[in-house]
Design brief:
Layout (H helix, E strand, L loop, with lengths): L6 E6 L8 H10 L3 E6 L9 H8 L10 H6 L2 H7 L2 E7 L1 H9 L5 H8 L4 E5 L3 H5 L1 H12 L3 E2 L3 E4 L5 E5 L3 H12 L6 E7 L4 E4 L2 E3 L6 H12 L2 E7 L10 E5 L3 H11 L5 E4 L6 E3 L18 E3 L3 H6 L8 E8 L3 H11 L4 E6 L11 E8 L2 E9 H19 L1
Parallel strand pairs: 1-2, 1-3, 3-4, 4-5, 8-11, 8-13, 11-12, 13-16, 16-17
Antiparallel strand pairs: 6-7, 9-10, 14-15, 17-18, 18-19
Helix pairs in contact: 1-2, 1-9, 4-6, 5-8, 10-14
Bound molecules: ligand PMT.
């Protein structure tokens, strides 16, 4: 009952995703939330007030000028009642109206009259979402501390493909849970991120496509959830998240040395870096000349940072979480790494799927542990990182 006694106003506006709101309300109520639904006229074209009344167990608010509704719970009373106002789906119209400070129906009036946090789950055609005025409206709402949850990406009701889908009900429920999460006990965490570069000569190296986005998002999420974060980063072009200690390294050996020296000081270690498994056996002092038609580079194995920390006999071994970047048989390989490296958890991503994994803004993961697994569906890396961090903390606290 993670949402026990939480009072949530769900504002539904006129988008096709409104039909998912019955499921959303059921899942919120399952977790103990008290949900009151406010519908715009547009919303009622997509899902009936009767359905929403039945699933929420409360009368629906749909009019600012309805004396009987006002007599039951007036709009100011309703605005004061809420712990959270969630607008899902939020059309481009309601986003613009809230940004402009309009109060031309019950929902927009509530947004002005409430002191509760407001979250919106945008849902619209991908082109409308990308329109500069929509982006400006969203940025301006964010500046006013309104949470923007989503949108997700994929096929749209209109046939287009892209960003603009309302997040799935369970993703929204998780975000609501995170919003209400009680402050976590403090913890220290070490995260590796980005690629490593293995030098061949002074001007050439072997590396991979890791951008560092996943690891940096984890560092940000860990800090948000109360972590004292150290981030060991390969070469990336990302800004250091606020309040995170960053140690820059280049090669796997440097990352190994930095990680092993920090690991005994932390409670949790996450290996998110794409560490090169091999490095050239020798690094030429001078730039290698193009003398022959072919060239052979002998490679030798790099130390395995994650395995060395996880299998350490030290009493200060941290809770160890690995990543598995796979292109096939994801579960088999991920579980193999979980066992072989003696990890507590492993987050596997299928990096053969376009638009997720290496160097993209989104990812999807499956978290595996000895007796279980959990799918974390495709989402922006920042959002996914928060969900993953909450799962990691759950497992960590259960173990300690
Ligand atoms: O950086 P992004 O562009 O955001 O992309 C994110 C990501 C795809 C890099 C990330 O989600 C990811 O999957 N990271 C792990 C990549 C990887 O190297 O996976 P692996 O299956 O080869 O390694 C398994 C685990 O062992 C990883 O936790 C890795 O950090 C660790 N390892 C591997 C080799 C080594 N020598 N030392 C290690 O610690």
């Amino acid at each position: 009952m993670t949402l026990k006694n939480k009072k949530i106003i769900l504002g539904i506006t006129g988008g096709i995703a409104a039909y998912k709101c019955a499921e959303l309300v059921r899942r919120l109520k399952e977790r103990g939330a008290d949900v009151r639904v406010v519908m715009t006229n547009g919303a009622k074209q997509f899902i009936t007030p009767l359905t929403m009344q039945a699933v929420s167990g409360n009368p629906i608010g749909d009019s600012l000028l309805d004396p009987s509704a006002e007599a039951a719970m007036g709009h100011i009373e309703l605005a004061k009642w809420a712990d959270l106002v969630l607008i899902a789906p939020a059309t481009v119209n309601v986003i613009a109206a809230i940004n402009a400070g309009l109060a031309n129906d019950l929902l927009t009036t509530l947004c002005l009259a409430t002191s509760a946090p407001i979250a919106i789950a945008p849902a619209m055609n991908q082109q409308m979402y990308r329109a500069s005025v929509t982006q400006q409206n969203l940025a301006s709402l964010e500046l006013r501390d309104i949470r923007i949850w989503g949108p997700g990406s994929g096929e749209q009701a209109c046939g287009d493909v892209g960003l603009g889908r309302m997040l799935e009900p369970m993703q929204l429920v998780e975000l609501v849970e995170q919003h209400f999460v009680p402050p976590q006990p403090k913890f220290k965490i070490l995260i590796t991120a980005g690629p490593t570069r293995e030098a061949i000569d002074p001007v050439r190296y072997i590396s991979n496509h890791s951008s560092g986005k996943m690891g940096y998002a984890l560092a940000k999420a860990a800090h948000k959830l109360g972590g004292q974060v150290t981030l060991i980063s390969g070469p990336v072009s990302l800004a250091t998240p606020d309040n995170v200690e960053r140690i820059d390294v280049v090669s796997a050996q440097q990352m190994h040395q930095a990680a092993l020296s920090k690991a005994p000081e932390v409670d949790i270690f996450i290996g998110c870096a794409a560490v090169a498994d091999y490095r050239p056996a020798t690094i030429s002092d001078q730039k290698i000349k193009k003398n022959d038609d072919d060239m052979v580079i002998t490679m030798i194995k790099n130390p395995d940072i994650l395995a060395d920390i996880s299998t350490s006999a030290s009493a200060r071994r941290p809770f160890c979480v690995g990543f598995a970047a796979e292109t096939q048989d994801v579960e088999i390989y991920a579980r193999g790494k979980l066992q072989r490296k003696k990890l507590d958890l492993i987050a596997a991503n299928n990096v053969a799927i376009a638009g997720q994994g290496f160097n993209s803004d989104q990812n999807a993961l499956t978290l595996y542990w000895e007796n279980g697994q959990l799918d974390l569906p495709l989402a922006d890396k920042e959002q996914l990182a928060t969900t993953l961090m909450l799962e990691i903390l759950n497992h960590f606290h259960k173990k300690s």
